[in-house]
Write a structure and sequence with these properties.
Helices cover 40% and strands 13% of the residues. By secondary structure, it is of the alpha+beta class. The strands form two sheets. The chain has a seven-stranded antiparallel β-sheet, with helices on both faces. A two-stranded antiparallel sheet has the order 1-2.
Length: 337
């Protein structure tokens, strides 16, 4: 063996040894991660807490973050109740922005030099476990998707990690208009064309069910129908509520700007007397809403915040929920024909 070959072999052995050691480290910190948060969906009090209280109680003090090892941070990310928000938006990039804003452990990990490498090794471990998993409950597949997204959609995070091989963890986003999926048109009541997508990207029914269960536990909402990549919240609210809806709609703004619908109220605390069953609710501006929903409750004069809507959460299911109980935070307005 040449001197160069010997050095390469030693380098590979060091990497393999470090990878094996990291796997042992992950198993040793599970108990630590389970107590890192003041409250989780496993606690009875969770259901009675407001969303703001839940977010506050799942923060980690700066002094504690700085003393946590990389493996402890990864376990804290895995146990973070709102990690499922990655899948709640119209793109993984939007979901990652939300998780980055809210998850202290993830922000600390991406700040560290070797954070990407430790996360990659953890995903490798998950793949090996999934290959040997005979129980197809979707949890393993879901966890791989969530943890992989933390790498794939954070290019700055992995820029210096040139040794990483992403072939095992690569996922295609079904929501990009530039990823090769065909584009189609649907039309508003006024006849304005709206760009939509037909995507063939799918996960297993078990994985979708696992994601929907996490949403139900985290937000105390009720699933109406199973998750799918085929259509999203905007397509559901503005085009069709049918389970056979074939289109994903990235921007429904023509429905809001061409006169097909008009705004009748704005703000969570607005009295919803004139908001009727079947009206549409959006989060964000008329030119680029973050989320859309359909009102499914009669007018009672209560604030719009407590009215019941049906909406599809990203690639997850359609859920029955109050307007104020969701992952979406932008200004709310109601639109009627």
């Amino acid at each position: 063996m040449t001197e160069k070959g010997g050095k390469m072999k030693k380098k590979l052995l060091r990497l393999l040894s470090a990878s094996v050691m990291s796997i042992f480290c992950f198993s040793s910190v599970f108990a630590y991660a389970s107590t890192i948060y003041q409250v989780t969906p496993k606690d009875k009090i969770w259901k009675s807490m407001s969303l703001e209280e839940k977010l506050d109680k799942t923060q980690i003090e700066d002094s504690k973050l700085s003393s946590m090892s990389d493996t402890e941070l990864i376990e804290a990310i895995k146990e973070y109740p709102f990690l499922i928000d990655l899948l709640a938006f119209n793109s993984m990039e939007e979901g990652l922005k939300r998780v980055t804003d809210e998850c202290d452990a993830y922000r600390e990990l991406i700040r560290r030099k070797n954070g990407a490498l430790y996360l990659y090794r953890y995903i490798e471990k998950l793949h090996k476990q999934q290959e040997n998993n005979i129980k197809e409950d979707g949890k393993g597949e879901l966890l791989i998707e969530l943890m992989s997204a933390l790498l794939l959609y954070q290019p700055e995070f992995v820029e210096e990690s040139k040794i990483l091989d992403y072939s095992k963890i690569e996922r295609m986003s079904p929501v990009s208009e530039t990823n090769g999926v065909p584009l189609y048109k649907v039309y508003t009541p006024k006849g304005t064309g709206v760009t939509v997508i037909k995507s063939s990207c799918q996960h297993s029914a078990a994985s979708h069910d696992a994601a929907d269960r996490e949403m139900e536990k985290t937000y105390n909402v009720t699933r109406v129908s199973r998750g799918t990549y085929t259509y999203n919240c905007h397509s559901y609210a503005w085009y069709s509520q049918s389970a056979s809806n074939p289109y994903w709609m990235n921007n429904p703004s023509p429905y809001l700007t061409d006169g097909s619908y008009h705004r009748i109220l704005s703000g969570l605390n607005s009295c919803s007397d004139n908001a009727k069953n079947g009206d549409r609710v959006i989060w964000g501006s008329a030119t680029g809403p973050e989320h859309s929903a359909v009102l499914k409750s009669p007018a009672t004069g209560e604030p719009i915040a407590t009215r019941i809507v049906y909406s599809k959460w990203g690639q997850c299911g359609v859920f029955r929920h109050q307007v104020a109980t969701s992952p979406y935070k932008k200004n709310v307005s109601v639109w009627s024909r």
